[in-house]
Design a protein that fits this description.
heterodimer, A: alpha/beta, Glutaredoxin, Rossmann fold, 5 domains, four-stranded mixed β-sheet, globular, B: alpha+beta, Ubiquitin-like (UB roll), three-stranded antiparallel β-sheet, 8 helices, 24% helix
């Protein structure tokens, strides 16, 4: 069967060896080199097959890692089977896609062109969906998403608050194309940014355009991308490299995974544009090995781009060469730091190096190297396709464009949300995120991963942009947003993040290697009720030294969760130390379990389940816990059906 | 040469362009503590002891890897800097055995020196310590990973001086340690026992095994000499206590070799006091070797060579010289062969 990528007739001469400069535009608007109504009609027909319309309805099934782990592939199989069974194969097309972003409600599927969103779909629901949607022209009401705030079902996905409040630039294709097909990407204007750059602009003009867009690095530091490119372009070297940092390691962050799984060509196109602007002919994507699906999709995408001549030599007959390779990381968080990442690509132990020299002067194998993260690269095609001005309409004065956040924790709508820079935390957490689970009270939001800070509710109206968050003691970071409710203990959470940082420290510099360990030990002591008043000063002073003297970003930012927790939640630390009390009832050493005799139904389940055998009672007397023998495991509270076991 | 002027602790100093802040301080006798820095090795910037305050720079930059620039204003002894250094030392001491009384390095330990200067108590951070087995696998180097402060000098010395790359870091964070690949003992690794790692270790993690218990640094007289093992001409210090050589240590001022030595030069000096060592020439009389004076021995050799030359001609004699001799000695040997004996039969064991 003919695809969009096949030549329309013998007059088409495009191959990777004999590239045509108009190849990309030809596929969507062509043919360009000759005028033939038959060829044009054929191309339009093939395009129509890809894009959803009434004659070609499409079911976009999220098969990203989250939904795939909930059985999305079974749903794809069942849908295909049912559609064949109903004889709808010519009018309904099942498309396995990357992440829709709505992970909490997965597996999800979207039916186009009617924009119907079905959530928490199971293979058993498939027959009903096909029957109602494509035979009876009705909805399966019970699978529509009900907004927790309004209690109303969303009639289309765009009506759901989760999607309605987002501005999807980078995620525009995610969930609406098959990431394993380059033609899907091209049909949605893919590689047009590259075509513009190669055909109409000099490398310096490309850099100027990126500068004008105001794009800043999405990996955490927020360095202006265009400026970074210009450093590497100006560096002297016979060979230059570019790198895509896909070593996304923050707990609770999965933006880059979403982009690589759902729209790998956007990253490739961004890197092609960057390589052209910088003067590099070789690039590496350093992707963590724990993202097998991202690596698979990227491998397929690179192969397809090579097959049509969008990667390789003399791309689109411009004389520009670019070859792209993947390197899988071996699990070290610190390899997200660019000098450690470069060492890892070179086959060395991933340890950061002192700068200068900066990678722009001496990077991979000692050559000038430019490194941006996945999301930054994926922004670039939009800037070159639509122009810097259109891109810069989103965001604040100093933080332009959009940012993807990974919403996790105690929030209703776990998932990926792309919003314009400058949106408030409140809008992100309560409108898009749907508020706190189980009607609990919001306590804090950890923003920027293990290196970020915990912000309390009085900071909820902060605008999310690079400078505002840094001032508040947090950071945009890579975009992890971990929401905590009243049942989260801030001392315990600081200890959790410190445990992460200290075990992921590379061990090179003293303050990070030894200091994070000692910070963790002090926090551990406090959670066990063994903290002393002076510990807080020691902790704070140590945190500042680690922050000010560590070698790389990991150590410099590792104290942030502690410092921000001490700043905004000091009373919780003091309660642990002075009153030997954990206000959130989390720290087990500070808890006592007691059975409320009025609520106890004397069923004896707690006594049966208690591993310490310290609960006594019988059918006539309410059960009691012997506090001296209790090991505070919490089993009794978990098994009690009447809420009679109290944690105090 | 381009010169730049900067201010350090209120003093105006001028240094060549390309100088680091640390070098600028040391050129002007401004003390900066360092544990991971060594002028013979690449700059690493890991111990963070050399941090200073520099106007306009965020955080506390390490002076060893910060280039001095025109007009830079540096402060090396502010309370902020000293407090941070004290905290870093407290962190190092908290994870370091305090058995200094019996430590071979006592009196020559950089960590102890700075801990004393900065009044570090070791009481601030009490917690887990590394507990790793000693590497006692070989006759030359004693490795105590618990005393290691992970400055990485040995790793760089092995790679940059000796070109062996036997040592590297392994594990992460608090569990990070230095050692040969797969945590093998030195004896099973590719180590050639040049001891460059020992020569740079600032603490008692790497020590010369044969010197353990033989003398304290302040009891030892250091006598600079040239190694007798080969013609390279390496210099080192004989460590002499009570008239007896107890070992060899590198002399950083050695013009030929710096701190580098080979296994023979560094660890082979026990021959000096070996009871089986020949101390006089021996002449075989009636099938037995008998001690003789140098004059007797020389006379005998001259007489025998003269007889051979007279009976069979000069070309019946061949002279073989040694790579253990210096160039000058080898030159004299060929002079002896050609001018005195009268033959061109002169060769050398290192000629291939």
């Amino acid at each position: 069967m003919k695809t969009l990528l096949d030549p329309c007739c013998d007059r088409c001469t495009h191959t990777p060896e004999t590239p045509c400069r108009d190849y990309v535009r030809c596929l969507t608007e062509g043919p360009i080199c000759h005028d033939d109504p038959a060829c044009k009609a054929e191309k339009q027909r093939l395009l129509k097959e890809i894009k959803p319309n009434e004659e070609n309805q499409q079911i976009f099934v999220c098969t990203g890692t989250g939904c795939a782990s909930c059985g999305a592939h079974n749903i794809v199989d069942s849908l295909n089977e049912e559609i064949n069974h109903q004889g709808l194969a010519n009018t309904v097309n099942v498309v396995p896609t990357g992440c829709h972003g709505f992970c909490e409600q997965g597996p999800t599927l979207i039916i186009e062109p009617r924009q119907i969103l079905y959530t928490l779909v199971k293979p058993d629901d498939v027959a009903e969906i096909v029957q109602k949607e494509f035979v009876e022209g009705e909805r399966v009401e019970r699978l529509l998403y009900v907004d927790p705030l309004t209690n109303q079902p969303a009639t289309t996905f765009a009506n759901a608050n989760f999607f309605a409040k987002q501005t999807r630039v980078v995620l525009n294709n995610c969930g609406f194309i098959n990431p394993e097909k380059i033609e899907d990407y091209i049909a949605r204007d893919g590689y047009k940014g590259l075509t513009n750059a190669l055909q109409k602009m000099t490398p310096v003009e490309v850099i100027d355009e990126v500068k004008k867009s105001g794009l800043r690095g999405r990996g955490g530091a927020g360095f202006p991308t265009g400026l970074k490119w210009s450093f590497c372009r100006q560096a002297i070297g016979d060979k230059k490299y570019i790198i895509c940092n896909a070593d996304e390691g923050d707990p609770g962050a999965f933006m880059d995974r979403g982009v690589l799984e759902g729209d790998p060509h956007a990253v490739i196109e961004g890197m092609l544009i960057g390589a052209y602007a910088i003067g590099a002919d070789e690039g590496y994507v350093y992707c963590r090995a724990e993202y097998p699906l991202a690596i698979k999709h990227l491998e397929i995408a690179i192969r397809q781009a090579e097959e049509v001549g969008l990667l390789g030599d003399n791309i689109l007959n411009s004389g520009f060469n670019f070859h792209l390779f993947i390197r899988a990381g071996a699990g070290a968080f610190v390899c997200g730091e660019e000098t450690a990442l470069i060492a890892s690509i070179e086959g060395k132990r991933g340890m950061p190096k002192v700068r200068p020299p900066f990678p722009a002067q001496s990077g991979l194998w000692g050559k000038p190297t430019n490194n941006n993260n996945v999301e930054t690269w994926a922004n670039v095609p939009h800037i070159l396709r639509n122009g810097a001005d259109r891109y810069a309409q989103f965001g604040t004065e100093k933080s332009k464009g959009t940012k993807i956040f990974a919403l996790t924790g105690k929030v209703n709508n776990t998932g990926l949300a792309e919003v314009p820079m400058g949106m408030t935390l409140r809008d992100i957490i309560f409108d898009i995120g749907g508020g706190i689970q189980n009607g609990k009270k919001f306590k804090a939001v950890q923003i920027g991963g293990p290196s970020g800070g915990c912000l309390p509710d009085e900071m909820l109206d902060l605008q999310v942009d690079y400078d505002t968050l840094t001032k508040a003691g947090a950071m945009v970071g890579s975009g992890g947003l971990v929401v905590m409710d009243e049942t989260t203990c801030m001392v315990d959470i600081a200890r959790f993040f410190l445990n992460f940082s200290q075990s992921e420290s590379c061990g090179k510099c003293t303050p990070c290697r030894e200091g994070t360990k000692r910070m963790w030990e002090i926090l551990d002591k406090i959670t066990k009720g063994e903290g002393r008043e002076e510990d807080l000063d020691t902790l704070e002073q140590l945190a500042r030294v680690v922050k000010e003297t560590s070698l790389c970003g990991l150590g410099q930012n590792a104290p942030n969760p502690v410092l921000s927790a001490l700043k905004y939640f000091r009373h919780e630390f003091e309660a642990h130390i002075r009153d030997k009390n954990c206000p959130a009832h989390v720290c087990s050493a500070l808890l006592t379990y007691r059975i409320d005799p009025d609520k106890c139904k004397k069923c004896g389940l707690c006594a049966k389940s208690c591993p310490a055998g310290c609960i006594t009672g019988d059918k006539k007397t309410p059960y009691e816990i012997d506090a001296t023998a209790c090991i505070k495991c919490g089993t009794c509270a978990k098994v009690c059906k009447f809420g009679a076991v109290l944690r105090e | 040469m381009e010169w730049i002027t900067l201010s350090i602790d209120g003093r105006t100093v001028t240094v060549p362009k390309g100088t680091t802040v640390l070098e600028a301080c040391r050129m002007n006798n401004i003390p900066i503590p360092t544990l991971c820095h060594d002028p013979e090795l690449s700059n690493y910037g890991s111990c963070r002891m050399c941090i200073v305050e520099i106007e306009g720079m965020r955080n506390l930059p390490p002076s060893c890897v910060t280039q001095a620039t025109q007009g830079m204003v540096v402060r090396t002894q502010t309370s902020k800097v000293r407090n941070a250094r004290t905290t870093i030392l407290e962190l190092l001491v908290a994870n370091h055995p305090l058995d200094c009384m019996t430590c071979q390095k006592m009196g020559d330990c950089a960590l102890a020196e700075y801990a004393y200067e900065y009044r570090v108590t070791g009481e601030v951070f009490k917690g887990q310590r590394r507990e790793l087995p000693l590497d006692d696998s070989n006759p030359f180097i004693l490795r105590d990973p618990n005393k290691c402060i992970l400055c990485g000098k040995c790793v760089r010395a092995c790679e940059e001086i000796q070109g062996r790359s036997v040592l590297d870091f392994s594990f992460r964070g608090f569990n990070a340690q230095v050692g040969p690949a797969f945590n093998l003992p030195y004896s099973e690794s590719e180590c050639v026992f040049c001891g460059s790692c020992v020569s740079v270790c600032p603490v008692g993690a790497l020590t010369e095994k044969k010197m353990v218990g033989q003398g304290r640094p302040w009891e030892v007289e250091k006598v600079q000499t040239t190694c007798p093992f080969c013609g390279t001409g390496c210099n080192f210090d004989l460590n002499v206590k009570d008239g007896k050589v107890i070992g060899v240590t590198s002399n950083p001022e050695a013009p030929v070799n710096g701190k580098a030595l080979c296994v023979k030069g560094r660890f082979g000096m026990d021959l000096i006091h070996n009871s089986e060592r020949l101390t006089t020439p021996l002449i075989k009389k009636d099938g037995e070797f008998v001690e003789a004076t140098w004059d007797e021995a020389m006379d005998l050799v001259a007489q025998k060579l003269g007889e051979v030359k007279q009976e069979h001609g000069a070309d019946a004699i061949a002279v073989l010289s040694s790579a253990r001799c210096t160039n000058e000695e080898n030159f004299l040997m060929q002079k002896l062969a050609r001018a005195v004996i009268g033959t061109n039969n002169i060769d050398h064991c290192a000629r291939t």
